[in-house]
Design goal:
It contains 16 helices and 11 strands. By secondary structure, it is an alpha/beta fold. It has a 7-stranded mixed beta sheet with strand order 2-8-7-6-5-3-4, with helices on both faces. Strands 1-10 form a two-stranded parallel sheet.
Amino acid sequence: MQSPMPDPIACSGVSRRSFLRLAAAASTLASIPLVTEAHLAMAQRPHFEDPDKGIHIDANENPLGPSTAAREAIAAMIPKGGRYRMNMEGELAELFASQNGLSPDCVIPYAGSSEPLHYSVLAFTGPGKALVVGDPGYEAPMWAAAISGAEIKKVPLADAKGAASHDVKAMLAASATPGLIYICNPNNPTGTTTPRADIEWAVANAPKGTIVMIDEAYIHLSDVPTCLDMVKAGKDVIVLRTFSKLYGMAGIRLGFAAARPDLLKKLDRFGGRNSVPITALAAGMASLKEAGLVAERKKIIGDIREENLAWLKSKGYAVTPSQSNCFMLDVRRPGKEVLAAMAAKGVYIGRIWPAWPTQVRITVGTKEEMAVFRTTFEEVMSKTTAGMEPAELPWRVRETPFSHLS
């Protein structure tokens, strides 16, 4: 008599109930595209087929690219690409943890910070557990919340002396049962910062069980202190980091989530242990070990930013007081018109936030790119842009329901 086929669920060591829960979560995740800065830029970019043509200052990319040490590390790793080398994830986590006074089990590397951002929103929000965000702010958390069924509370940024920081007291007042409060510091798209004392207040006063997520994607470009010490203190926080901005690795995809191990474990059901390419891991370790890299790039980007902010102010335009690689520029007319007019001349800026319809976000490019921006911007603003619209979006972007984000 033929032996019955073994039960694959039983053989896996996972209970049937747990398996079905994980399967349901995986099925849900499979239907959720992870929305990144690139997707959001493409949603309003008239032409994006060839990023090597034109001036692209619309996606908060770093035109400097990976450092020399990171490039060399990638090249050295290519011949070893036939092996999985799973140990490298642990090595990178240990390096980052040791540099920041954390336990390695409080750090998980990901292929970019978009994954843990989405997984966190899915894990901690839902019906009866709202997502609270600043407005204007990075839209990706709202995309995930729309999938989780959470109510989305958008709170206008505070504007004391034009600071455009997160209004943390209004954010906590926005919902009696927030699941996750998202603070991007410095903020995307404004480049403005929220004082450490305000974030401490939010963490101390958030309802029990509420997670405060601090997205530090742009922190290396600013003077604000990190909140990683809150992770070490065991607070209900998740801190995100990425190599996409200062380190110039947006296309290589590498980032971290840092939090208490019990919080990180809640992300696992959404794919929290997917492998990171070994080339990205090698580049990340080389970048973290490169002395002086952060200070050098912070100065390069900061000097170019300040030069252009000063020029725009001299022309009578209002700009946000950015400490990042992006800022908001008030063009005093529908922003989408200016976006379209600039694109027609091969300079791609963006994008538009419904809360600030006359403002556009400008990413800081190279000195040469920003010189072209200034010339083109003067040309565009010297004429009418009435009626201009960004070109029709590609079908793949058109079908994405970005209406959830507005």
